[in-house]
């Protein structure tokens, strides 16, 4: 397995130094599975200022369809052709159809009763219940619709990350159509097996543990890495060891998964970042595809609140960041060791 970095130097005459020649550096990193590239830029890192979301939270309270007292009346119920239950619930979590679905089976899981939870206020109980509730729904979908193999649990936390409702909720998809992510990853997994006779995920875990630069934690159920070629500002990846389908994510694996997510939320909060995207991917019937999770924070760039998504991500499908995965790994290790996943 190769971790390819292409180092780039650009030269220009710098007005800040009397137009003398100066150089800037960047890296193009090639994903060891897919060959897709990400860029690490050598720009000074600007401190992110904590956004005041209190007005956003208060304004959204009166309009919220997910708050207790309203949710039962205004959210839909599942159609009996598709699944066996009208709604799924566990603890505070409630899973209902998405009224704006992206696919045949689109659901939302309202994570908790509280209208707004800051990143540090999520607890193991809340997230374990919410994920288990999603997994129960996903397992039920394939009983009547076995072709719905592309399954994922996703999170847009807060509007900057694409969340249109403040009340914490996950988005769940079970589809017969892949997204581009699966379309890139799945053939590469097959090719890796063909060329090496080996399992990509086990090799990735071994390689990253050996080189120790990006392995945040490797416990019994989940290995956590700072992705070599990140898809966002940073990209924390958790690879599940034993599970293949949503119903397998229980016990120690679920506890480690949830504790890892909480550690990343705490780290994101410590950087004054307040938004994130998360996807937990499953693929039914393909043992080469090991379930894994990716979490990327979302930021806007001061002083103009400039979007981090520019033409590179939109139209060239290329991620840019100024943060090195190896530095992120070092920082995150403290959160794992401090809390013990
Ligand atoms: Zn609410």
Which terms summarize this structure?
single chain, 341 residues, alpha+beta, HIT family, subunit A, ten-stranded antiparallel sheet, four-stranded mixed sheet, 8 helices, binds zinc ion
The CATH topology comes to: HIT family, subunit A
CATH architecture: 2-Layer Sandwich
What oligomerization state is this entry in?
single chain
How many whole angstroms does the radius of gyration measure?
A: 21 Å
Instruction: Report the CATH superfamily.
Output: HIT-like
Q: What is the CATH C-level name? A: Alpha Beta
Q: How many strands, which pairing sense, and closed or not: the largest β-sheet? A: 10 strands, antiparallel
Extract low-pLDDT stretches: none
Bound molecules: zinc ion
The secondary-structure class comes to alpha+beta
Distance between the termini: 28 Å
**Proportion of strand residues:** 25-35%
Overall geometric form: globular
Number of helices: 8
Describe the fold and architecture.
- The protein is an alpha+beta fold and 341 residues long.
- It has one domain: HIT family, subunit A (2-Layer Sandwich), CATH 3.30.428.
- It has eight helices and 16 strands.
- A ten-stranded antiparallel sheet has the order 4-5-6-8-7-12-13-11-10-9, with helices on both faces.
- Helix 3 packs across helix 6 and helix 6 packs across helix 8.
- The radius of gyration is 21 Å and the shape is globular.
- It binds zinc ion.
- The site of zinc ion (ZN) has 5 residues, from loops.
- Zinc ion binds next to loops.
